[in-house]
Amino acid sequence: MNILVVRTDKLGDFITALPSFYVLKHYNPKNRIVALVAPLNRALAESCDFIDEVIVDDGKSSVLALSRKLREAKIDASVTLFSNTRVALAQFLASIPQRIAPATKIAQIFYNKRVVQRRSEVKMAEFEYNLALTQALFPDITLEFPKPLLQFEDAKKVYDVFCVNYEISRNVIAFHVGFGGSSDANWNLDEYEELIRTKLADKKYQIVLTFGPDEKELYEEMQNRLRGEDVVFYLSLDGIVTFAKLLSQFKLFVSTSTGTYHLASLVGCATMTFFGDSKFASASRWKSIGDAKLQKHYMLPTDEQKRQEMFEAVKKELLAF
Question: What is the pTM of this model?
């Protein structure tokens, strides 16, 4: 059976979809799993051995062009984890026999099997809602998946080269101070600087600051703030898969709830993560797919006094790590 799984939004959202790809492939190894993804997620999708083919939707080509791609893939059934009118219409025009999606938005009229989920109620995490949709195709499917879900045979080799290049001889704690995705809460740069200096003081770990390829200004700002300190500044220009391999070897990844947090947890790195104090932005909805024992969640309050109390608690947690 050729099964299309659709998740064409950002990095973190795509990672919450990966367990669904995995369980569909392992329900019957003969299933051919085709991923429809945004361009930024292509390389990560291609690195997953439970995805057989990747189709990229750049959002710019015509719906007819996209539907032709889907028709050529000879899809028997599709599971659309997050829908929009573009991908819904393309599947309809491609005459995919079974088209499953959440019963939300006007796009649902183009699907022939609609599942009521009401994700805004946050009765499950995002990845759990995604997994639930696979049951509409195979009611007896097993929803369990390994943690970490993604492992790389050459990760240690990539990390060793990284350590040589940056003269690293201790285990790494990484801080990612940037914003992104659906995150709506974070420490400011002054607070991050204090957290970093707190951990620098015990000299137990090598501190690495990571930055995405579009965060060059932030990269330079943090270099100025921490000039002269024993900190490695890593601007990720070698692609998402290389970054994932490095993350798999780090001991802790500290960040807001953004795509890099999901990437770290995907490959088995322990995480300390900051979430907004709302149902939509909460850890209950956006916890990652990694081992729960390796995830430490903080929902940042809007009240200043409570925020300061939480900040002190985070410092203590870092010192204890």
Answer: 0.95
